[in-house]
Amino acid sequence: MQRFISKRLPLLLVMMLAVFTLQDCSVNPVTGKKQLAFMSEEKEIALGQSYDPQVIAEMGEYQNPAMAQFLTEKGLAMARTSHRPNLPWKFTLVDSPVVNAFAVPGGFVYFTRGIMAHFNNEAQFAGVLGHEIGHVTARHTVAQQAKQTLGQVGLIGGMILSPELASQGESLMQGMQLLFLKFGRDAESQSDQLGVEYSTGIGYDAKEMAGFFGTLSRLSGGAENRVPEFMSTHPDPDNRFVRVQQLAQQYQEVDTKNTNYTVGRDSYLRMIDGMIYGEDPAQGFVEAGSFYHPGLKFQFKIPGQWTLINAPTQVQMVSPDQKSIMQMKLAQGSDQNAAAQSFVQEAGVNVVNSSQQPINGLPATTILGTVTQEAQQQGQQGQTISVLASFISYGGNTYMMLGMALQADFNRYQRDIEYSIGTFAQLTDQSKLNRQPEKIKIVSNSRSQTLQQALQADRIPTDRHEELAILNGMELSQTLPAGTLFKSLSGGDIK
Q1: Entry's InterPro entries (predicted)?
Q2: What is the mean pLDDT of residues 229-258?
Q3: What superfamily in CATH does domain 281-431 come from?
């Protein structure tokens, strides 16, 4: 039977059968109902503990002690009132401009500085915090992990070539998951409800959480530019706005502990004053189709339509169809030849061609070759991956720029890979080297005026007024009474 299954059934189905034979039933901590358990709580915690350092390595921590303390204090207070108070909860502020918050199994919750910049009071933050805690307490993160494991079989099949290349592929997948992790609509709706429940439980006005969905709606282009809700994995932000308002009203009506709910607008705005907004140029930035890194003083061009993911330890680029990957990171040592030889040996590369031709005057060793992955199970066929990698010595470091795809597909991407590698060069443009980050600047409105008038008075360029209106959770025509705090920007190109 085992031989028949492995020959006749698709690999994904075989793996699904294997997974479901290992499941058992457990009680969901939130619903109290039995559900299929993909893993024990001990394994869930261990999984989260293994992910946590990887998340921080991929995204980096944002160094702001006051904000980090605020996140941890509120997170722990809320976790204590949740359905799973005994998890080893950990709350981390990560250094990403993406507007996102996410959780991994076991009680590990992450907020980007990008989402922190878009909250306009403590209550909005608390609602989203409760939402992310809800994903963990309802075990959505566990179910999602299992789905991702199954859904990635095809990609993993093309990635697990050797310890060296496997680590690169896993890193890419983790980065993509963390930035774009999506739960189903039912899970999102349940977490919205838990966000209202948990934030109300520690005294915040959960109606403000609904206001943040207005911000999300505008960030996603408004209702006219979004796909219909039935085609999306997330509920429509406008529908969530209405539902969360209703839920907040219901919870507040039955809450006997609190009568005066906290919003905390001014306190929150003062806390984020001076926070970096958008890309931090010191860590590298994209402009006009090129990637620049002022700290390490290098640059290279990005192939057209490829997606770039910048992390503290590496830069990754993915082709539009996600069938080819490029990666740039530091290699070991300062000798490009030794680094190339080490890579060939560790990755098991069958070298087809090699070159010592410099790249823009920099010493380089470039190899073209293949790596063959042996079949993992009886009935499977091994896969051959084509790899093009250059090892470039510059500034006392050796940089590896690598592109790979299945051998059958590689010709479609080789020109893009060669183009990007061939543009690696020293960065000498002082306008790029001296680029400063933009920062949130909290301003007290001196007189009664509209938000647009206030932004004009603070010399914010007109073409960025709508962006700042979204950042403030307001309309440009909204009147600000004298003394009202609002978000503006400083640094960067803002004069």
Answers
A1: Mito/Outer_Membr_Metalloprot (IPR051156), Peptidase_M48 (IPR001915)
A2: 67
A3: Mog1/PsbP, alpha/beta/alpha sandwich (3.40.1000.10)
